[in-house]
Write a structure and sequence with these properties.
332 residues; 8 strands; disordered N terminus; 12 helices; 3-stranded antiparallel sheet; 3-stranded mixed sheet; globular; single chain; 3 domains; alpha+beta; Hect, E3 ligase catalytic domain fold
């Protein structure tokens, strides 16, 4: 999941090349081959043949959940990531709020009289739509500082993180007692899906549905069955606490202590907003953004000691009129 979010297809190809995955000729994989690998259902246990999906008998290399996460990130970030450069780190991350064009970067170098060489990176609107746009340049350091402050605005303080991690440990103890019950429910669900697949075949044979509808419904059922069986395997190896691990990762990602460190690393800062930010824009040299879930929960939260309490049915965002970065965050 994280590789798809942080690297371009070329970067991924080089990473897997180091691990020994190459073409038959021994050369590095192409971008198109990497793209095909990321979307191929074969790796989670399914395959397509004659326009229909089937559950394979081979051992899946990854879980269905991981595959779905990769598809979500790949579809939303792949085009953006391909434009990121090592020397223009925030390219592809933002758009102009006035005209909607992409934000590009320019690198300027100047040699001073004393012989020193100074380099600056500026970000500006591409103005490719041909409409009037009055937006000017913004320095990379200024942009990075705004993003850092935006990240810190949703950061969780140390005392809250300690309580959260303590509550997760409590949940883990509770979940251990539910392993057997949850496994039985999943086995029941798997059998129900098998019955539905059998009935679907009967409907096709009896001529009550056409081939196109059969293929569509079968695809959904096969995906459901693989997903359920993947959960059963996860429970067998890890128990039902597997869903708590992503929660731990998220809490650590928004921990104030960790975000302060990430804010000094432009690449980590970019990765954080590529994952949690949405609709990032610039206007009058100020950054505006929405937050994706679950980051939007932190943007709208009201600090309380019982952070796990059920949220209000009609939540209202916390207003920060003096912080332009938070003007555009989304409502749940």
């Amino acid at each position: 999941m994280y590789l798809t979010n942080r690297y371009s297809l070329n970067d991924l190809a080089h990473e897997v090349f180091k691990l020994g995955l190459t073409k038959r000729s021994g050369k590095i994989l192409s971008r198109s081959q990497m793209a095909n690998m990321l979307v191929d259902p074969f790796y989670y246990g399914a395959f397509k043949w004659g326009g229909e999906f089937y559950q394979g008998t081979h051992k899946p290399a990854i879980s269905k959940k991981l595959y779905d996460n990769v598809q979500r990130l790949y579809s939303s970030r792949s085009r953006m990531v391909s434009r990121w450069g090592k020397d223009k780190i925030f390219c592809g991350l933002l758009r102009c709020n006035e005209c909607g064009c992409s934000i590009t970067a320019e690198r300027h170098t100047r040699q001073m009289k004393n012989g020193n060489v100074h380099t600056w990176v500026y970000y500006r609107c591409t103005k490719k739509k041909g409409v009037p746009c009055s937006q000017g340049y913004v320095r990379e350091e200024n942009l990075a500082e705004q993003l850092k402050q935006g990240a810190l605005s949703i950061a969780l303080p140390d005392e809250m993180v300690v309580k959260m991690l303590g509550q997760i440990e409590h949940w883990e103890m509770e979940e251990e007692s539910r392993v057997s019950e949850h496994s039985l429910d999943l086995r029941k669900e798997s059998k129900e899906i098998e019955v539905k697949l059998s009935r679907l075949n009967d409907l096709l044979v009896d001529g009550e549905i056409d081939r196109e509808e059969y293929s569509s419904r079968k695809k959904n059922l096969v995906h459901e069955k693989i997903s359920v069986e993947s959960q059963m395997k996860a429970i067998a190896s890890e128990g039902v606490m597997y869903w708590l691990e992503p929660l731990k990762e998220f809490i650590n990602a928004v921990w104030e202590r960790n975000l302060k460190t990430a804010g000094d690393d432009f690449k980590k800062l970019r990765d954080f907003f590529a994952e949690g930010g949405s609709n990032l824009r610039i206007e009058s040299r100020k950054v505006l953004l929405d937050w994706n879930l679950p980051h939007s929960l932190l943007a709208e939260r009201v600090i309380c000691t019982e952070w796990w309490r059920r949220r209000d049915s009609n939540p209202r965002p916390v207003r920060h009129p003096n912080k332009p970065l938070l003007q555009g965050y989304s409502r749940l």
